[in-house]
Amino acid sequence: MDVVKKNSYMSITIHYIDERFNLYARTLHVKPVEEASHTAEMVLEEFSKGLAMFKVMADMYQQIIVVSDSGSNCCGANGISSAFYWLACLDHKLATMLTTVVNKTTKMENGVRSKPFYRYKDVQHMLPLFMLINACKKLVEYCKCANLQSQLSKTLKQENATRWNSLLRYLLNIEEMYDKFMSLLQMKDKLNKLNDISRALLKELIVFLAPFQQATLTLEKFKYPTLHKVVWWRHVILGHLRLVLSDVVDEDGNVTTTKDFDSIKAIKGIMLPLL
Questions:
Q1: Are 106 and 217 in contact (CB under 8 A)?
Q2: Are 99 and 88 in contact (CB under 8 A)?
Q3: What is residue 118's predicted lDDT score, i.e. its pLDDT?
Q4: Listed ranges 24-28, 103-107, 146-150, 244-248; the one with the highest mean pLDDT
Q5: What span, in angstroms and rounded, lies between the C-alpha atoms of 188 and 186?
């Protein structure tokens, strides 16, 4: 079973097999949660109530494996893991790893905001990457405010913190229409909107993010088993996070793999130990 808490709702889905080993996935319900404080105890109570609506009682809990995000209110000692066998959702793990690093996550301690997550790493080389992401966001915002959407061949995407891989999708959006953006901005004398968007780094960041989306899409399948694919994707992403320090040339002299940008090296250095 999966339990996903979002805002003031809890959705519960069930995955099971029949006697012929056919796999099924069903959404039991999306349950409103009234309490403001989503503690581990409260999440367990609401989850148990949700199951009880379908006559799934405590004497059946040993037959259930719960998969959820790794928030303390889901995996805390007094929460779901105290009553059920619990597993972390690996897609949530990948998404959290990316957003924690790429969004320069900070935290509040005694009313003081900490330095970004990468404070012990190569900040100097990370800055072009963050400038690129911020410039892309501002470009999308400008195009929407200036009503330029109708002159573009595709709908502009924006990053959504609650949707996996949304950063990759909107960066792809910008790269695919880069020439059109340049033409439109030139007519409006706004080419400066592209000053911090290095197209080469944009392409490299897209290449870097792509395997994480592939892994997410593979591991989130509802109608097919995915447990056996975890080791493979861990192997793929570990290899993907290894530094490429020089161009790789084949026997014919063709460059098959280009060396990493300094920004990509820096982000790999942060993410490899996290994985």
A1: no
A2: no
A3: 59
A4: 24-28
A5: 5
Most confident of 93-97, 105-109, 249-253: 93-97
- pLDDT, one tens digit per residue, over 235-253 is 999 999 999 888 777 777 7
Do residues 209 and 132 lie in contact, with contact meaning Cβ atoms separated by under 8 Å?
no
> Is-contact 70 88, C-beta < 8 A?
yes
DSSP 191-238: GGGGTT--HHHHHHHHHHHHHHHHHHHHHT-SSS--GGGHHHHHHHHH
Task: Please tell me the pTM assigned to this model.
Answer: 0.82
**Residue 157, Cβ neighbours under 10 Å: how many?**
17
Identify the H or E element spanning 6.
Answer: strand 2-6
Cβ atoms of 205 and 171 closer than 8 Å: yes
**Per-residue pLDDT reduced to its tens digit, 143-170:** 888 888 888 888 887 777 677 888 898 8
- Long-range contacts of the stretch 242-251 (C-beta < 8 A, 24+): 242/268, 242/272, 243/268, 243/269
125, 134, 144: which is closest to 194 by C-alpha? 134
The Cα–Cα gap between 121 and 153 comes to 40
pLDDT surpasses 90 at 259: no
The residue behind tokens 């940008």 is 261
What residue segments make up the domains of the chain, in order of their start? 2-88, 123-274
In this structure, are residues 155 and 206 in contact, taking their beta carbons and an 8 Å threshold? no
Residue 1 has pLDDT above 80, yes or no: no
What residues have CB less than 8 Å from 130, skipping those under 6 apart? 104
Whole-angstrom distance, CA of residue 267 vs CA of residue 125? 9
Four-point Cα dihedral 242, 262, 168, 2, nearest 10: 40
